[in-house]
Specification:
Elements: H1 2-24, H2 31-38, H3 44-47, H4 50-64, H5 83-89, H6 91-101, H7 105-110, H8 115-122, H9 129-147, H10 154-180, H11 188-198, H12 202-214, H13 224-242, H14 247-262, H15 264-285, H16 293-308, H17 313-334, H18 339-350
Helix pairs in contact: 9-10, 9-13, 10-12, 10-13, 12-16, 13-14, 13-15, 15-16, 15-17, 16-17
């Protein structure tokens, strides 16, 4: 008997130690946490609760750090449970409940109000901050798709590309603010600390990409392709999480959203190739009258950031490896004098 009880006690102690390790983990220093939390869609009034944040941190810890950690499901009715034992344990409260059931229409008319917040909470069309964020991304998706259409007149396509970049600036800026807040103080040490915490985040990279191109005098349709891929991923995830019970979603949108989710790696590689192609086009533009050396240099610094950031490094490194396998044999055979400047650029790139 005693040996049989030791097993569950040991397992409970082990889980308690794992929960303590999960609580002590430095999530802010892990760039994967920022990406994970930005993809969790919960109502704002729940996202601010410490128990909700702790629950999703344990789920993150279970997924990326320790798969043996047992995460119990989060109760969504915890706020209504404490009032039930009081009603059962009090005789006077029980008699009042009986009188209330026998009182007729007055008690029936008082019953519906508590159910109203639950209906509002279950409504996927609630007009909260996350729905606004989704609406901006849906708008970016439509406008970027129009901007890439070859049949659209050039001035309309250019305007659509600019609007899609502007929408991405707003969407990424809001996501950064909701995830990281703002610097504690408006001085250089506080701003530098805040920048160090967001510099590897996906939304910060999207913000820098869009800010650089929305102010450019060049009108390149390929700039809308990464924006289109980012918005498509966000819209598909939001629809799958919030409209999975809708008959319209199941009939028309479920398969496209499932395709986006299963081909996320393909979309990320497509976006990375478009970002690199845009960098080379900016270098070519330096020989035109619309050249902008500062913008080109800053964009290549953004590409350097994408090469190192955990959320984009694997895709960019794969794209660069493919370029190297294609170009290096021709350089070695026909232009060996380029090896010295290329090695200098590589040292700057990897520094």
């Amino acid at each position: 008997m005693g040996g049989g009880d030791a097993g569950p006690e040991g397992a409970a102690a082990e889980q308690e130690a794992k929960r303590a390790a999960a609580a002590a983990y430095d999530y802010e220093a892990d760039p994967r946490w920022a990406d994970y939390w930005s993809n969790v869609l919960v109502p704002p009034h729940l996202a601010a609760r410490p128990d909700v944040l702790a629950h999703f941190r344990r789920k993150f810890y279970q997924r990326f750090i320790d798969r043996d950690l047992v995460v119990e499901p989060m109760s969504t009715t915890g706020s209504t449970q404490p009032s039930r034992p009081d009603i059962r344990s009090s005789p006077s409260a029980s008699s009042e409940g009986v009188r209330a059931r026998n009182s007729g229409s007055s008690s029936r008319s008082a019953a519906p109000p508590p159910a109203a917040p639950q209906a509002g909470a279950a409504n996927p069309l609630r007009f909260d901050a996350r729905t606004i964020h989704f609406s901006v991304n849906a708008w970016v998706l439509v406008v970027a798709g129009l901007g890439m259409l070859p049949i659209l007149p050039k001035h309309l396509a250019d305007r659509a590309c600019k609007l899609s970049l502007l929408g991405t600036v707003l969407s990424s800026g809001y996501s950064l603010y909701s995830t990281y807040g703002k610097p504690r103080e408006l001085n250089m040490p506080a701003i530098q600390g805040w920048l160090q915490s967001v510099v590897g985040a996906k939304d910060f990279i999207h913000l820098m990409f869009s800010l650089l191109l929305v102010t450019s005098q060049l009108h390149l349709k390929i700039a809308a392709l990464p924006v289109f891929c980012w918005a498509l991923d966000h819209v598909a995830r939001f629809l799958r999480r919030n409209f999975s019970r809708s008959s319209f979603y199941r009939g028309y949108l479920e398969e496209p959203c499932l395709w986006v989710e299963t081909n996320n790696t393909t979309l990320s590689l497509l976006s990375s190739n478009a970002e690199l192609a845009l960098g080379f086009l900016l270098i070519i533009s330096l020989f035109s009258w619309r050249r902008n050396f500062i913008q080109t240099f800053m964009y290549w610094n953004v590409l350097k950031m994408m090469y190192r950031a955990p959320v984009t490094s694997s895709y960019h490194q794969s794209a660069w490896a493919k370029i190297g396998r294609t170009v290096n044999p021709y350089i070695d055979r026909y232009a060996p004098f380029l090896q010295t400047p290329i090695s200098m650029v590589q040292r700057w790139w990897l520094r």
